Fold these 2 entries.
Entry 1:
Amino acid sequence: MIDKHSPMPIYYQIEEAIKERIDKGEWREGDMIPSEREFSEMYHISRMTVRQAVTNLVSDGYLIRQIGRGTFVARRKIQQKLFGLTSFTEDMKGRGMKPGTRLLDFRTVSASGPIAEQLQIPDGGEMYEIKRVRSADDLPMALEITYLSEDLVRGLTEEDVYGSLYGYVEKELGMTIGYATQELESSVAREAESRTLGIAEGAPLLLIKRFSYLEDETPLEIVYSAYRGDRYKFVVGMHRNRTDSNG
Amino acid sequence: MIDKHSPMPIYYQIEEAIKERIDKGEWREGDMIPSEREFSEMYHISRMTVRQAVTNLVSDGYLIRQIGRGTFVARRKIQQKLFGLTSFTEDMKGRGMKPGTRLLDFRTVSASGPIAEQLQIPDGGEMYEIKRVRSADDLPMALEITYLSEDLVRGLTEEDVYGSLYGYVEKELGMTIGYATQELESSVAREAESRTLGIAEGAPLLLIKRFSYLEDETPLEIVYSAYRGDRYKFVVGMHRNRTDSNG
DNA sequence: TAGTGGTCTAGACCACTTC
DNA sequence: AAGTGGTCTAGACCACTAC
């Protein structure tokens, strides 16, 4: 089951093996899994390598360690997804809905002001401006405006933005997305939004502003979204930091 | 600087030492910090111990590792807080505002229905129901209703809920908070909320439902909040999961 | 007492980046 | 070629939990 000569790291192979057993129901929520020493003997690898695998699965929310007792399968497996940054497409699929896109506008504009600054585009640089209506199960869900540095994702075409921009950046461009900050606020629909989203004026809107970054902190995109308040709930999982109390 | 005979783990001492140097500005954003081998020789400890410290600081957002290049101080230090779960009190302080509480109601009620189920309170058990108006700089910010299992935090008094419930649970009860899931949606104020929060009927409200859990996944609390849309933005940082693509 | 996870050592070889 | 982080080993002692 573990191939020591595979190019895949051993700890990664162990992670996959453990996750598979959990997914198959072989180990259920709350079950104790084999101890680190047992894994170590089972696969003929050192305990530190097992620990690396287990540590990763703990921080991914699959496992829980308890000193002196053992390591256990975490409950609420469904909620694990809530902790990860997702694209609209992934988000809707995760909710069991069919994501769709209507492209309103796709152009490059000269960068200036705070948007250019956030995207670290020098004076005179260009950026993509993409306006889309995102739908779920063929009904409008959100209005989105995305900005990207042209330099960073040069060659982006209209076809590329009908699906997941994150998917494109990761799979086609081979970049690694690191994190994003998001600001959410409550608002009400004005005339323009109500028409585009098919809701009444004054109906609740959830406004989201997102700044995405690559793993090395290169700014990737800015997204302004307006989600229909009657169809969309933003769901997020947050961990308590070890360092919070230090302020 | 490093005390090998201290009860504090060595890796933790290194973490603190690195954070201090960053906070003091000795190492600035984007700077390369000493290599793992340099730390290892500097403190006369093994490289694996250094790695444990650095790994923790990377996942806390302080450092960034780049293969073949080195380890660097992360940019956007201010945004590090965004990734951690905070109480209302901590949240407001982080925004530079003075948190306050007006207690509307504090009682124990018999648990039943989905709330009892979520809090894992058996039939016939009791739970605390706490209604508070939370203020920032002496102006109403949110209306909150909190439910806690009486069994878990037995002996809670009215005085305890004027400040941070998280602080009380962690410092007084010695429990460790693990994580929470939160659902956010946009709504508009009705008569009751508009009166309590001092806003107009129909004004935007940000509704937040929070389920908190201890480290061992014991459900700690349920909180329903209604934040004033004109005063409050929810801000959150999210990391891209290694496991997202696997769905 | 036996077993668990927590911490730590003193090495090793690898792929990668920089020069 | 030299230096970096990534992976891995084969042990060790500790505090804690369960019995």
Entry 2:
Amino acid sequence: MGSASPGLSSVPPGRLLLPPDTASRTGLEKAAAGAAGPERRDWSPSPPATPEQGLSAFYLSYFDMLYPEDSSWAAKGPGASTREGRPEEPEQCPVIDSQAPGGSLDLVPGGLSLEEHSLEQVQSMVVGEVLKDIETACKLLNITADPVDWSPGNVQKWLLWTEHQYRLPPVGKAFQELGGKELCAMSEEQFRQRSPLGGDVLHAHLDIWKSASTSEDSWADSEVDSSCSGQPIHLWQFLKELLLKPHSYGRFIRWLNKEKGIFKIEDSAQVARLWGIRKNRPAMNYDKLSRSIRQYYKKGIIRKPDISQRLVYQFVHPI
DNA sequence: AACCAGGATCGAG
DNA sequence: CTCGATCCTGGTT
């Protein structure tokens, strides 16, 4: 049992989307069941705050892949009742800190909608993971994150890789000569026609890439703009800004406990880079950024949480 | 090696 | 004067 459930933040880059030998089977099914059927993904207790259509569809499935063991509430019999046995809303999501499995963090004081808050944190984390994995895959395959830009060769690479990751029957031939644009325009039905066995799953994964890359775009241009508001922005404001958009920045910085204002910087270099861009300070790095954060200690704006962890800070006056 | 704490200095506003 | 950038020393993980 120890083999599964990898430490999330310490996963080797080679892992990519899902450990082939642990959760591959179930994860695959979930990916198909969760992401492929966007019509009936009403599992979310509260409507997502963002307009992104596809994203919420694969939170569930992805969450499953990441936590093959702890997802009993969504577990379906292998191959059994896939369509009927639709998972209930998660009553209580497992604590989702990357490390610190033992003490970890106390989620929510209790009382109000625990599911919503936990769900939010799950979402921001999962989105971060998804984007990270896609980023890794892009580097590995030397393709862009946006499938629309893929050449026929890129499409083949992606197919090969996805087939390999998810143990799908090889279907490259069926999609030969197709560019990214055509691929993205294809319906799930058309995918199935070309590949009766794994077509629906492929389509589901392409969907994930599509929605992930659109959120990437919004990240790209919002990092330039929004400084045009005028007066100089404060670091703490900037950090809250990033935290407000987990879809865009969730892989860089995210809430560990929004109610308490506890957040974690997941990618210190990237956060520093964004801050440098915003302030037009190309030499910015995390060393300097963190020094500025430390200046907030005495001003009572940010502090270290009670249980001090690396890269984890806390707003003194959370909203 | 990366993170953390905090003193010192400097420039912009 | 405030705020943040930069640099630095020294400690911790």
